[in-house]
Design brief:
mainly alpha, 6 helices
């Protein structure tokens, strides 16, 4: 004998749309209400960067050292600041995760820093709209092109100096400067 049919509650017709709206709202709130650890990200990154190479290498003579672009210091549009921060983080991750990093660097601190960078990159990618990387007419030059050029210069600098310990030490100082500027970009992105 067949089992009696049990009545299944039916979802209202608007439930799927409501579910989509609630998901979008939860995502938006997650992006606008950043956890407290976001405020300490640059400071913690600076500490890890220092822990990677606690003893400075002997000084060497650098030619054509890369300099952080001044134009990136004057970004005032929140989405542009967030996209700029994302691009800097992506380049830092790529540079510091390379196989040519100095052997005297402490791997634990380096891996912690890379994990932190990856987490922040994923968070920014999740929160930025897909078209946030295009900023026509907002600056004399696209800041993302400027960042790409700056990090290309860093890679050229490393190659020119045969990825020496002193060249990497200079790159570590540049990364320190990037983290300091990321703090300002993050504050701008929140507004």
């Amino acid at each position: 004998m067949p089992a009696p049919a049990t009545s299944q509650p039916r979802l209202a017709r608007g439930a799927p749309a409501l579910l989509l709206l609630l998901t979008a709202l939860a995502t938006a709130l997650a992006c606008h209400h950043r956890p407290a650890r976001d405020a300490t990200f640059p400071w913690r990154s600076l500490q890890l960067l220092q822990a990677m190479a606690p003893s400075p290498t002997p000084p060497c003579h650098h030619h054509q050292e890369p300099l952080f672009p001044d134009t990136l210091l004057h970004i005032t549009h929140p989405q542009q600041a967030a996209a700029t921060a994302l691009r800097i983080l992506q380049h830092l991750f790529h540079t510091l995760s390379g196989h040519t990093t100095p052997q005297h660097w402490h791997n634990d601190a380096r891996h912690q820093l890379l994990n932190s960078l990856q987490h922040r990159i994923q968070r920014l990618q999740h929160c930025l709209p897909h078209n946030a990387t295009l900023f026509p007419g907002q600056a004399p030059r696209n800041p993302l092109i400027t960042i790409d050029k700056y990090f290309r210069h860093i890679q050229d600098f490393l190659r020119t100096h045969n990825h020496s310990a002193c060249a990497w030490d200079h790159v570590r100082l540049e990364a320190r400067l990037c983290f300091q500027h990321l703090h300002n970009l993050t504050r701008t992105a929140r507004n």
